[in-house]
Amino acid sequence: MAQPPPKPSQPGARAPVSLRDVADLAQVHISTASRALDPAQAGRISAATVKRVRAAASKIGYTPDLVAAGLKRGRTQSVGVVVADFDNPYNGLLIRGLSRVLEAQGFVAVVAESAEQRTRLAAVLDHFTARRVDAVVSTAAHLGDADLFAPLIARQIPVVLGVRGLPASGFATVLHDDFRGGELAGAHLRELGHTVVARLRGPVDIDSFIRRDAGFNAGIAGAEQLVDVTIDDCASIPDIAEGRRLMEATLAQRQRPTAVFAHNDVMAVGVLQAMEGAGLRCPRDISVVGYNDVPLSSHLSPPLTTVRLPSELLGRRLGETLLARIEDPSLPGEELRLPAELVIRRSTARAGAARRTRSG
Amino acid sequence: MAQPPPKPSQPGARAPVSLRDVADLAQVHISTASRALDPAQAGRISAATVKRVRAAASKIGYTPDLVAAGLKRGRTQSVGVVVADFDNPYNGLLIRGLSRVLEAQGFVAVVAESAEQRTRLAAVLDHFTARRVDAVVSTAAHLGDADLFAPLIARQIPVVLGVRGLPASGFATVLHDDFRGGELAGAHLRELGHTVVARLRGPVDIDSFIRRDAGFNAGIAGAEQLVDVTIDDCASIPDIAEGRRLMEATLAQRQRPTAVFAHNDVMAVGVLQAMEGAGLRCPRDISVVGYNDVPLSSHLSPPLTTVRLPSELLGRRLGETLLARIEDPSLPGEELRLPAELVIRRSTARAGAARRTRSG
DNA sequence: GCCTTCTGTGCAACCGTTTGCAAGAGCCTT
DNA sequence: AAGGCTCTTGCAAACGGTTGCACAGAAGGC
Questions:
Q1: Tens of pLDDT along chain B (360 residues)?
Q2: Geometric angle at alpha carbon B113, from B241 and B65, rounded to 5°
Q3: Which residue places its CA closest to the C1' of nucleotide C18?
Q4: Is the separation of the CB atoms in B316 and B102 below 8 Å?
Q5: B316: which chain A residues are within 8 Å (Cβ-Cβ)?
Q6: Cβ distance of B130 and A63 shorter than 8 Å
Q7: I want to staple B247 with a disulfide (CB 3.0 to 4.6 A). Which of A63, B266, B274, B354 is the partner?
């Protein structure tokens, strides 16, 4: 047997131990080494050889090159994830749930942020395509964005939507039941007797906010003499600053609401800030209902009444949906809808409470 | 010229348009096409040819295959990022800052979570190696974890540490000035006259918490008759639940503290929960100081006195440090330290306030 | 008019795996 | 004993780019 001379590795040069080195050491052909190391193919190779190759691999510290394997296989074992906003604590749990199920199957998540901008979403999606991810999940889609995914489906890359759907797009989708969530919030306010209400909506071209709004309207319908003092729509990212801005604008109006429904908890924090700035107290002067139940909302001042969404669970479901599509791309684009739940805390009170307690 | 017959693409088969197709359409050699599309090499090619190739590429919708390019170039244009806890809102801003500077240079972040477990960190790092990331940033290191990075440095993969350092490891590091931060918190409590204090520390084997603690001790030193009722150390992830557990244990002791310093804001929320459960009010009965100034902490009940850290900035600095190391791996492992700042809100008050207001 | 220097392009060898195909060995049928 | 299995392994062609080198032609210096 011709022993290949050990390469005189230059001092300081990296030691790229490749499959070839393993094969040489184990005295087998590189293809045999490849199969011995692949659990799916190891059955074809004799037990003795497998053992020898494994030993050689661990002896010289072989780490497979996933990019080479990815090139050859046409699968990179990675999925692209695009969220709207890293800063929203809601997304943390979602990503955790998602990446837990992905990594259990040897996949890895490549995460990016769209900041609610169509051009950024497009750029991110392009990048994912170039990187040849095996699938894409988006929780950042706006209503007109379906076309941005076209290049992906042309390449047969499964696309799964989370949180925000794209009606009639045919993508597999995992949503919260936002209609129900909004409805719970609306009914709660109706039961408390609120008649002058403001909704602080997220961007109008986002499915989930639309459904929250529709649900809220349904839930509060029936309240006598209902006055809607919603003034404006979210211009950009529905974050603390935007919640504050919208609330300040609302308070500048002639008629002050007795209750506001913020489309997410971080906007609700902005609402609270605006109220504080205006010398108003919650819930005495104005009740506020948030949405999402992010971990800290139970300790806001006051603790926030909000709609709880199972975000980590949604992340997991997204992962499972995704994995199934990677396995079998022909699976239908079904829609999964997770339950929402109202959590009543101390930021809501009966309408008119301020009048009754004003002198107290 | 021999025109290669157009491939009879099967209906339903994907249309993998490759560089070869672009070259054929533009009537140039594939290598010429490659250079024409590479901004760094386009100078070598005549303007007319570049234009022709570009036109051909966009006409047939060519998207470069980054995994193939990565294999050949030995650079994947990706960096691995490992954080301790997706659920901690602190990390969101950090990741945002980091990925903004990375993506400006065409890099992408691959993010994973260690959940404070050494084995998970090891697994994540292995995965990064296999994926041939160009660099790794960790904000999840525990003190004994330096060895986990050895395989990376053996492969000349730059490692940058953020938030949590590894003393004497020689890695480039971007930290908050946690000693100073802790000191500010300690001095604040001293000035308010607190003498019975509890510290709710993060895991004892994490650099940043050690420095916070040392700083706190220095800051509060000089307080008369100082009694330390710190009872326990964080067993796992320093999150809300752990903060609550530690505070409950603290309250079960004989001597009750008049102030507590929680090593991060989310633990402080747990502290507040425990106090509420025990019928104690903040700051009347016990003052609490948090750490991090996560976006929501200004609206906790009560608004939290805390130490503000520029997390997004730290993320950006991490990115810059990283990029510089990718460019020139021989750069020294210098340490950057970002300033901390005390934000006094309403969760802290003079010691003894409870006695004075008890009947009020 | 010859030699050098550019420019612009083509040639072909990689990068590290995977995998269809084939071949040799050993064993079983009939 | 020949043909047909199964089992194990080797061979070599990809995958889709990148890049050092060579080469042809044009331009320029003397």
A1: 333 333 333 333 345 799 999 999 999 999 999 999 998 887 889 999 999 999 999 999 999 999 999 999 999 999 999 999 988 888 999 999 999 999 999 899 998 999 999 999 999 999 999 999 999 999 999 999 999 999 999 898 999 999 999 999 999 999 999 999 999 999 999 999 999 999 999 999 999 999 999 999 999 998 888 888 887 777 788 999 999 999 999 999 999 999 999 999 999 999 999 999 999 999 999 999 999 999 888 888 899 999 999 999 999 999 999 999 999 988 999 999 999 999 999 999 999 865 544 443
A2: 155
A3: A72
A4: no
A5: none
A6: yes
A7: B274
User: Which nucleotide's C1' atom has the smallest distance to the CA of B17?
Assistant: D16
Nearest CA in chain A to B274: A299
Bin A290: left if φ > 0, else alpha if -120 < ψ < 50, else beta.
beta
End-to-end CA distance of chain A: 99
Contact B175, B335 (CB under 8 A): yes
Distance CA(A220)–CA(A225), nearest Å, equals 11
Q: Tokens 């250079």 belong to which residue?
A: B35
The pair of structure tokens assigned to B39 is 């901004």
Residue nearest to nucleotide C10 (CA to C1'): B29
Sheet holding A259-262, edge to edge: A227-228, A196-200, A259-262, A287-289
- Tabulate helix, strand, coil % of chain B (nearest 5): 45, 15, 40
How many angstroms separate the CA atoms of B269 and A264, rounded? 20
Contact B336, B176 (CB under 8 A): no
**Nearest C-alpha neighbor of B107 from the set B160, B146, B145:** B160
What tokens were used for B212?
A: 């916070």
> If you search the block for the tokens 């006195």, which residue do you land on?
B305
- State the sign of the Cα–Cα–Cα–Cα dihedral B121, B122, B127, B131: positive
Q: What is the dihedral of CA B251, B255, B256, B259, to 10 degrees?
A: -120
Give Rg (Cα) of chain A: 27
**A243 CA to chain B: closest CA distance, Å?**
13
Q: Which nucleotides of C are covered by protein (CB under 7 A)?
A: 7-12, 14-20
Cβ pairs bridging A and B (under 8 Å): 152
Q: Where are the beta strands (DSSP E) in A87-130?
A: 108-113
The 3-state secondary structure of B93-144 reads HHHHHHHHHHHHCCCEEEEEECCCCHHHHHHHHHHHHHCCCCEEEECCCCHH
Structure tokens at B127: 């995965």
